Every structure is written in structure tokens, then in C-alpha cells.
Amino acid sequence: MNTARRPDTDGLPCMLMRGGTSKGAFFLAEDLPAERPSIDDLLLRVMGSPDERQIDGLGGAHPLTSKVAIVSRSEAPGIDVDYLFLQVGVATAEVADRQTCGNLLAGVGPFAVERGLVQPGEGRTSVTIRLLNTGDVATATFPIRSGAVAYDGDQAIDGVPGTAAPIEIEMTGSGSPLLPTGNTVDDIDGRRVTIVDCGMPVVVLDAADFGLSGDEEPATLEASAALTTSLEAIRLQAGPRMGLGDVAAQTVPKMILVSPPRHGGTLTARAFIPHRVHPAIGVLMAASVAAGARIPGSIAHEIAELSDDRRVTIEHPSGRFDALVRVEDRPGVGAVAASSVTLRTARKIFDGLVFPRPHR
């Protein structure tokens, strides 16, 4: 961090971006303190946490709008930039790094070009990104016009009004097992679950096992204390089984209720993140659910109406999400998702200085 700059009085370089169906503050690593406790303190003050309205900061009073991306030029061979995702608590003074965010990932490539970390070509540019939270690698490809990122275009994604330029994101896994427990189905608290990690740790459950149709509105699901209590009990037990340890203070794994499709898709999903219900579905959550749907015997596979190609269409509260996923067996590793491809959009909202809330 430039020690001559004092964020409280001089401001902190920041770009606010929408990435997919999320929104977050993007920073260069070099503009932030070196030590993690100092970073956390600064970001809580930037976002206005803890406060359920986040009235004194950039946060939008919801987990999907209380996110941070920290980007730096990578020293790893074949990688352009490193991306660290931080989930900033809304009503709590917590900054979590146990998960990544595939929606904000859509903004990382454009941000890298905006900040001069990557020199773009003309037409289309690809940026290779290492996701520091998980070790996964993604390649984001997006349009360039006259040497600058083109944000306008005709690509629509459900959960975001209007259209924007398409951003193609191809994920290649870290080589970790797609099924962390080695089982297609596990039993937790008397419930059949499938535990999957294709870039985002998720626990897939049949909505019917909870007496649900699976197409309920998010507010209806959140209002059921019995449901949320049951899901949290399962989540706390699933975390150690996935090698995540104690997840009580973490936002992973995500809990996914699946049910049959209603509108010509592959299946319907309701994603708990982990206590609020996502108004759509996150990119990497969708990749994990889609990969699970391609594994014979899994909870998702039992429900899914699969096509003959790689496409899995997930119906969610705001519309549909298409993912292309290839699942293959690798000797000694087990079922591994070789790659997933999704289409997202992103938009630069503002670029300038943000002034953190003063220390109290």
C-alpha cells in the first residue's frame, strides 16, 4: 500500500462494478494494506458494516451487494491476474474468504484491463485469472473496442435488467474431487444429500423431502424457521465432511434445494447463501449444481430432465441460467468436472475514490 496515502482523509482508489447478478467494490491489492486484519478493518468501514442498512458505506444491505474483489498482477506461470474474493458481513463485522464469487469474477477481466494489468487486443481479449480462494483457474473473454473494454451489448442474463456485452467464463478446476466425500449420496440428519464442489462447495437436497414444491419465492423460504434451522444443521455437519472444518462463521457450503423444471429447463433450484435465499443463482453455485446433475445417482440427477448435449438449464427465482459442464472420471481422483462454461455480463458503475467511515 502507498504509505503516503491516508484512506480516511485522502480516499482509496475503488471501482464499483456489477458482475453477473452481484455488485461489489474492486480494488488493486497494491492500494490496500499488506496485513489481512488491517484490510478487514478498512473494508468494513468502506462497506458500512456492521449495519443492516449499511447506510454509511458502499454496501447495499444484502449479501449480494456487500462484496469485494482484490486483484493483482499474478506471478504464476500462464496466469494474468490473481483474484481474491471477500464477503463482507452486512449486520456483522465479519469478512470471509472461504468461498469465491463467480458473479464478481465476470468483472475481474475488465477491471484488469481498466487498471492496466493486462494490455488488450482489438476485438476480443482473454484474461486468465487465478481464484486465490479456491485455487481454480478461469479464463474470461470479452469484447474490446478502440483499446477499451466494451460494456454495452445485446447479452441478457436473468436477474439483471437490460443487456450488456457478453463475457464468456471458462472454469478449469483445481484438480480436487468433484464429490468431496467420495459418495454420490450421503445421509445427514436423516436427509439424503449430494455434496458437490465444482468451484463452489454446495449441498444439494430434494425440496420434496422438506414438504416443498421447490418453486417457492425466496421470502417464503426464508420465513420458515423450521426449514432454515434444518438446513443450517445439515450445513454445519457437511462442512467438516467436505474438509472445510467448522463452517459456523463461514458462508460455505451453500445449500441448494432442487425440484423438477417448470419451464422447459433441466431442474429448478433455490440457493441458500447460506441463510438468505439467492434471488437468482450464483455462477459457481450453478456450475456445481449442473455438474451434480450430470453424475448418475446424485440427488440432482434423479430429478433432472437432461439433454443430450452438455447444457444444463437451471430455473431460479429470476429466470434461467445455462451452464455447459463436462464431467469425467480420472483414475485416482474420481469424478472431476473438467470444465464449465458460462455467459455473464458486467458493468463499470463508478471509478474514483471511496472514503471509509472513520474509526470510532
TrEMBL record:
It comes from the Bacteria. The keyword Isomerase applies. Gene3D superfamilies: Diaminopimelate Epimerase, Chain A, domain 1. It is an enzyme of class 5 (isomerase). Keywords: Isomerase. InterPro entries: OMA_tautomer-like (IPR047687), PrpF-like (IPR007400). GO terms for molecular function: isomerase activity. Its EC number is 5.3.2.8. Belongs to the PrpF family. PANTHER family: ACONITATE ISOMERASE-RELATED, ISOMERASE YBHH-RELATED. This is 4-oxalomesaconate tautomerase.
